[in-house]
## 1
Amino acid sequence: MNTVGFEPAPLAGTKRLARPELCTFTAVIAFAAAAVVVVVVVVVVVVVVVVVVVVVVVVIEAVVIVVAVVVVVVVVVVVIVVIAAVVVVVVVVVVSSSSSSSSSSRSGNSSSSSSMQYLGWSLFFLLPLLV
């Protein structure tokens, strides 16, 4: 009995492959294609995640920069308003004391005490602005 080249009969309902090496080659190609698809999907997901993280970081930094600029502008405006208010109070007190000094020589010392009261009340109301 010669067994060289003997192949068993195919199972019922199946076809015998004409060239089994083609089946193996097709499986290798399919596996390689699936691996390439998986690698491409992973690379795309990683790129999307990196882009989203970079965009979020840039947006957060932009928001932080905008908030910092707004805070600096508000602080500068408040300081300017406080300085202007103090200058106005000092000018009013100096003007009222100079006018009261000319009138105090005629009527006594009562107007200079009223200008000091005005200065005291002005500083009392400006004190919260300084804090």
## 2
Amino acid sequence: AAMKDIQAIYGLNIRSWQGDPCVPELLKWEDIKCSYTNRSTPPRIVSLDLSSRGLKGVIAPAFQNLTELRKLDLSNNSFTGGVPAFLASMKSLSIINLNWNDLTGPLPNVFHDGENNGLKLTIQGNPKLCADASCKKNNQNYVVPVVASVASVLIIVAVLVFILVFKKKRATQVQHELPSTRPSIFTQTKRFT
């Protein structure tokens, strides 16, 4: 049921994906590996490779229903959003390849704990994804200079406007206060003899 959900969510149209993903063993689905060790229980999917399939959107919660999954390869797709924390809580999962997607935000702390438990997560090629605690600090490193620059420009513009208005007002006052330097008509026509 989990694979059918994943198939429906991402619109996967793979010819071999018909019937049961693992049974019969000779007709198992492409890009899937199953465990056939215990014949008393049905085979379980242990590896899923959906790399380079053009998948888009967020990483769906349906993956967590693959309870025996050991390896998940979702590399070279167009996944967006954050890396879901549920991937780290999947007990059997030991390898997750999320390289070359468009994932964003900080990596959940549970992945840092998971690395100590043998979980190998690869996330290269996701420039908007931050793998450590410096994410918030890095965002602040951009915000402070931008705000300071904008504030500086606004202050400079305000000072220039104030100076121009003050000079114009001052020039108008000086013109009204000073007597005219041009001789009046009467003094020009008057002759002294």
## 3
Amino acid sequence: MKATLPKAKPRRRLITTTRPRVKKEALPKVLTRLGVITTVVIVFLLFLQAIIGKFSLTSLYKKNSFQKKAQVLQEENVFLKGQLSELLSPLMIEKMALSGNMERPTKVYYLRVGKQ
């Protein structure tokens, strides 16, 4: 008689569909959440700053353009006043009167010009 060895039972294998997970060294969840929150806040502040900057730049542009317009108008005003005073000078009026386009100025006019 032959001696028979007992049959070896097959080892049970766990049938899994996923690979065994390798534990990664990662930051704690609190730190990752804080990082996400800070990035969102920074992006929001940048957009807010861009919007406010745009409005302030447009207001500065408007202010500068108004100042330039006012300066140009003042310069034109000074120029026109100079021309008007030159035209209304007694010599110019006499020239116009002598040319026949106007009556000869009276003494009342000279008194009025002298008071000014």
## 4
Amino acid sequence: MIPSEVLDRLNPSAAAVSARWPVVIGIALTLLLAFGWGLIPRITHHEPDTASARLVTDELGRVHGRVDAMTHTFTNEALYPITLTGAGVRAEHFSVVGAALPKVVPAGGSVEVELLVEYTSCLEAAEETAPVILDVSAWWGSARVAASVEEDAAPVRWHEMFRESGC
């Protein structure tokens, strides 16, 4: 048994965590999460602006197919500038075969990108809704993100663009 005079000399708060450590840890975690959230590229996809059909020809002028050129506007919602380096869609009946990239988008800025779209079945592609997938590079590295549709807007209606271009 420990004598009482020894227990009296011991500091009762020696093993206790001080009240400020949980506060410091909480602030550090909050800052870490806020910094991490700021690293995620956030891109808003606005309704496509224009569409036109183009014939694909070789150097002799022979026609090899057709693509639709569609101009899309993307807004960088992140807190830092980004570079769009690639574009595509998750769709079964059409695909992006070309894009006027790379383009630098400042923080809070917008950029228009012309996407060249080729489809395998016009009727089925006209009813498909597909997000635009962008390859993004920034000061910290690169990522592949789906562009979110602007608030108060329906999903991107590719079928309207296909019909406008004569699909």
